[in-house]
Amino acid sequence: MTEQGTTHVIEVTINGRLYSRTVEARQLLVHFLRDTLDLTGTHIGCDTGSCGACSIILNGKLVKSCMMLAPQADGAVIETVEGLANDGELNPLQESFSRNHGLQCGYCTPGMLMAGTYLLRENPNPTEEEIRRGIKGNICRCTGYVNIVRSIMDVAGGHGAEQADGIVGEEQR
Amino acid sequence: MLLKSVNYVRPESVTEALDILSSNEGAAPLAGGQSLTNVLKHRVASVDLLVDISALGELRTITRAGDGSLEVGACVTYDEIDHSPDVRAGHAILARESSHIEDQQIRNRGTIGGNCCLSDPTNNLPPLLVALDATMNIRAVGGTRHVAAEDFFKGYFLTALEPGELLVSITIPPIPVGGGAGYVSLSVATDSKTIVRAAARVRVDGVIEEVRVVLARVASVPIRHHAMEEALRGVAPTAELVRAAAELIGSDVEPIADGHGSSDYRRKMARVVARRAVLAAIEEGGRK
Q1: N or C, which end of chain A is more exposed by having fewer CB within 10 Å?
Q2: pLDDT single digits (tens) B217-247
Q3: Mean pLDDT, chain B, whole residue set
Q4: Same domain, A109 and A156
């Protein structure tokens, strides 16, 4: 049993690196990432679990980090947007967001990228509807979602890629 | 937002959790936290000690018994229910409706027990569990008791749980031969807050032998509509007769009014979703 208390020592592996810190029990996980560890790639949009900007992958599951307390993450393996690029090289999904204008102001992008990453792991060949359902927990106020959906489709295998080609080709005409 | 300072503890067993809950007046169980975390942010409830039960293995199992009944641990997430072969095999409707709760992030954390214990009238699972005649298995330091889902939901954010008690699992009986279940919601948008919904379970053997019709969002808790059930018992499972029975939803039901619909609108839509839920249940029963 963890000792009962208002502060706890937690150990968390984030993007392959182990962190050990003392946290207040009331600290939200997103604040732990941003304020304690200075991993500010994960954004805070609404702070009420509605917008998805703070989405991360925790123990393989996409979650909103504003809807968890830091001590709940003790022992967890976490992936954040900072872990996507390899030595400064954008990964294929990030590259696709750039190529397809899947972002404008960029505020929702970290959450969208993590939601897209999770979706493609669970379902490598999503249909457009599956992509739209997969990012339902993430709000974007700029793009109208069309280019975000296209960005995810463009890196998906099989019919997803064909559909994305279809959308792009049609608009170019 | 900054929460009020709070104590946190992660017990290693249900027994340990019950000891803590019963000996600390300000203690509250923390499961998926997809509602409680916001409640704490807004400081609308005062909790001195959060007892994190979300990782307790005892609360995270799904078992299908020989008779086809299903027992789902209180801390099983919606996503796990959706993907469980045991749930899909005999209670596909529970898997399907779990897959339509809010969004992927919430389905990865939110739990069936939390969905019930919050007793928010817009929550997805309470009306379904009442329609399926589920039993809530509740433990306290002194022992275990069982409460029918129908008697578990007591009011807005209020359940039959007494201080120190913990919902540990939910047992759902098998859907009988010739039986089926239906669930229809009228919602603001896809997989979002519901305006009114209905869940039904029927068993047909030539005529409708058994029927349960549950309406949600027309009262503070899911309610069975006994007059509609009575009208359906013993009659042929035809669209006309189901429609006529749904028309009995009248002034006995007084739904709330809000920005999404007046009381009268909700009452009229309750007839529509109730009819469709019963027809879906009849159709599912006929396919088996």
Answers
A1: C
A2: 999 999 999 999 999 999 999 999 999 999 9
A3: 96
A4: yes
Residue B193 scores a pLDDT above 60: yes
Domain match, A78 and A105 both: no
Whether A158 has a pLDDT exceeding 70, the answer reads no
B120: nearest Cα among B92, B150, B153: B153
Query: Using a CB-CB distance cutoff of 8 angstroms, which residues of chain A are in contact with residue B38?
Result: 48-49, 67
All domains in chain B, ordered by first residue: 7-52 (3.30.43.10), 57-172 (3.30.465.10), 180-286 (3.30.390.50)
Residue A2 domain-assigned (yes or no): no
Say yes or no: A62 and A38 in one domain: yes
Return the SS3 of A159: helix
B234 is written with which tokens? 């013993």
Does the beta-carbon distance from B52 to A115 stay under 8 Å?
no
DSSP notation for A43-108:
--SSSSSSS-TTEEEETTEEEEGGGSBGGGGTT-EEE-GGGTSBTTBPPHHHHHHHHTT--SS-SS
Half-sphere exposure of A133 (CA within 13 A, CB side): 13
Residue A22: give its domain's CATH number.
3.10.20.30
Cβ proximity of B165 and B139 under 8 Å = yes
- Give contacts of A72 with chain B, Cβ < 8 Å: 30, 33, 52, 54
| Residue A151 lies in domain | 92-167
Give the pLDDT confidence score for residue B70 in this predicted structure: 98
- Chain B hits for A133, CB-CB cut-off 8 Å, are 104, 190-191
Looking at the predicted structure, is the pLDDT value of residue A173 above 90? no
Among the partner-chain residues B3, B10, B190, the one whose CB lies closest to the CB of A26 is: B3
Instruction: Quick: pLDDT tens for B137-189.
Output: 999 999 999 999 999 999 999 999 999 999 999 999 999 888 999 999 999 98
pLDDT of residue A162: 54
* CATH of residue A121: 1.10.150.120
Q: What is the interface size between A and B, counted as CB pairs within 8 Å? A: 104
Disruptive mutation site among A2, A3, A4 for chain B (greatest number of B CBs within 10 Å): A4
Question: Is position A172 within any domain?
Answer: no
Whether residue A65 sits in one domain with residue A43: yes
Show the DSSP H helices in B26-77 as ranges. Answer: 36-41
ipTM of the complex: 0.94
Contacts of A1 in chain B (CB under 8 A): 9-12, 16
The answer to the question of residue A1 being in a domain is no
Tokens of A67: 């809807």
Q: Do A26 and B6 touch (CB under 8 A)?
A: yes
Which of A83, A115, A139 finishes a domain? A83
